[in-house]
Amino acid sequence: MPYPVEHIGGIGPSYGAKLREAGICTTADLLRAGSSRHKRRELARRTGIEEGRLAKWVAMADFMRIKGIGSQYAELLEAVGLRSVRQLRGVQVEELESRMVRVNGDGRVTRALPARKTIARWIEQAKRLPPAATP
Predict the structure, then answer these.
(1) How confident is the model at residue 106 (pLDDT cuts 50, 70, 90)?
(2) Which residue of 21, 55, 65, 113 is 20 to 30 Å from 45, comparing CA positions?
(3) What is the helix, strand, coil percentage profile of the chain, to 5?
(4) How is residue 50 annotated by DSSP?
(5) Does residue 134 form part of some domain?
(6) pLDDT value at residue 22
(7) In a domain, 83, yes or no
(8) What kind and span of H or E run contains 40?
């Protein structure tokens, strides 16, 4: 389900306006417009937003295609080093859980970490989703 682009952490009114001027209103629009390095480079040129920032947001939009992953969990997945749903497919549940605990520390990214069972569901969903973005 696509969300307004401002639901992604780090996209406030200023960046949201720049993206909307480029025709990007939802997470699905962002994912389409930034699905490859070439497309992100072009989007950076059109919007004036740094390519690295766009790559982070595209990764988060990709994760938000998975049921149960909203902006905070998408940000956490990006913070542990994952850059796409494709990468999430190959991660072991226990490994990802451990990385989340380490990165989140005292609630730096999200107040509550997902349960192991939830992480396993995300990985299973990732395996069924078609690729939408390349890191």
Answers:
(1) confident
(2) 65
(3) 60, 0, 40
(4) -
(5) no
(6) 97
(7) yes
(8) helix 37-47
Determine the structural domain holding residue 102 and report its residue range: 5-128
Residue with tokens 């690729």: 131
Quick check: is 60 in a domain? yes
Whether 135 is in a domain gets the answer: no
Residue with tokens 């069972």: 117
Amino acid (1-letter code) at residue 50: E
Question: Does the pLDDT at position 135 exceed 90?
Answer: no
Q: Could you tell me which residues come within 8 angstroms of residue 95 by beta carbon, excluding any fewer than 6 positions away? A: none
Q: How confident is the model over 3-33, as pLDDT tens digits?
A: 999 999 999 999 999 999 999 999 999 999 9
Whole-angstrom Cα distance, residue 86 to residue 91? 10
Query: What are the structure tokens assigned to 98, written together?
Result: 């451990």
Mapping DSSP onto H, E and C, the string for 53-93 reads HHHHHHHHHHHCCCCCCCHHHHHHHHHCCCCCHHHHHCCCH
Span 39-84, pLDDT tens digits: 999 999 999 999 999 999 999 999 999 999 999 999 999 999 999 9
Give the model's pLDDT for residue 96. 98
